[in-house]
Specification:
Layout: H1 2-16, H2 23-35, E1 42-44, E2 53-54, E3 57-58, E4 64-66, H3 67-78, H4 88-99, E5 105-111, E6 114-121, E7 137-143, E8 148-155, E9 167-170, H5 186-194, H6 203-214
Antiparallel strand pairs: 1-4, 2-3, 5-6, 5-9, 6-7, 7-8
Helix pairs in contact: 1-2, 2-4, 5-6
Length: about 220
């Protein structure tokens, strides 16, 4: 627990100043993010997922799911960057693998007023069950206030240095030559527009909305 608090204090300092982390601090931050739980708070399910099945039930308007399950459904059914039959355990394993890669890019920044880190890596994005062609970046968002992961997805590119208040702690390495430009998933803008603002006191909901906007 003390190590977790030290790492989160480190992240807060990096965002508050903002300054570059030392190599040992970078390792500490990555290791803590890789060990962190994914947020389990209930979030309102996005409209494009309504009517689909999950856990032997139909997702209806107003349905809520734990954040980790909602993020998996977004990745597998809306972005289609994970196989449709990916389990929560497989999804988390892929995220943790990407976080720990030494060539991962790392950015620190405030999100919804909270100190956060974004970790993105090309390696670890491959799933032998997937027919989707790489290259894809696996992008993971960690919050120092909650000590949890709050988003994980894949995309062809990620310009973390363009985010307001972001400090590029380490540039993502090993960008492939066969790079293909992609447009943002159409569901994203709809999700941000329709996000329920009735619970501004819930940090998990605020972080989720802000991360969707920043994507």
């Amino acid at each position: 627990m003390q190590q977790v608090q030290q790492t989160n204090d480190l992240l807060s300092r990096l965002v508050r100043r903002p300054v570059k982390a030392t190599p040992p601090e970078m390792t500490q931050l990555q290791q803590q993010a890789a060990q962190a739980d994914f947020c389990g708070e209930l979030l309102t399910v996005d409209e494009p997922l309504w009517g689909s099945f999950w856990q032997f039930d139909v997702i209806s308007p107003g349905s809520r799911l734990p954040a980790v399950e909602l993020n998996l459904l977004r990745a597998s059914r809306l972005d289609r960057t994970w196989p449709a039959d990916t389990t929560v355990e497989q999804y988390l394993a892929d995220l943790r693998k990407a976080i720990l890669q030494p060539e991962a890019g790392v950015w620190t920044l405030p999100v919804a007023g909270q100190p956060c880190a974004i970790i993105a890596c090309y390696r670890g994005s491959g799933n032998p069950k997937s027919k989707i062609q790489n290259p894809k970046l696996t992008v993971v968002w960690y919050c120092g206030t909650t000590g949890q992961l709050h988003a994980g997805y894949r995309g062809a590119h990620f310009a973390g240095e363009r985010l307001e208040g972001a400090v590029e702690q380490r540039r993502v390495e090993a960008a492939p030559n066969e790079f293909s430009q992609e447009q943002n998933s159409p569901w994203l803008s709809q999700a941000v527009t329709e996000k329920d603002e009735s619970e501004p006191h819930r940090l998990a909901a605020r972080l989720d909305t802000e991360i969707l906007r920043l994507r």
